[in-house]
Specification:
It is built from three helices and three strands. By secondary structure, the protein is an alpha+beta fold. It has one domain: Orthogonal Bundle (Arc Repressor Mutant, subunit A), CATH 1.10.10. It has a three-stranded antiparallel β-sheet. A hairpin with a 5-residue loop joins strand 2 and strand 3. The chain is globular, with a radius of gyration of 11 Å.
Length: 66
């Protein structure tokens, strides 16, 4: 089953990232959200494309609020 990117999911991603202090590793954030890998990466890439989050380094990479 394909999980689609929705505004609600994007809002949930951003709210959870904010709750983590505005920056978080990809693995930890995905675990907090309880999402599949595909859904996490699809939502993450949409938010990056819309310049609502930035990406960082780290063992598994990270994201941060802009």
């Amino acid at each position: 089953m394909r999980e689609f990117v929705t505004r609600k999911r994007m809002t949930t991603f951003l709210r959870t990232l904010k709750d983590e202090g505005g920056s978080c590793g990809n693995g930890r954030l995905r675990d907090r959200l309880g999402w599949s890998e595909d859904l996490y990466w699809n939502v993450r890439e949409r938010l990056v494309d819309e310049e609502r989050i930035g990406v960082g380094r780290g063992r598994g990479g990270s994201v941060h609020m802009i």
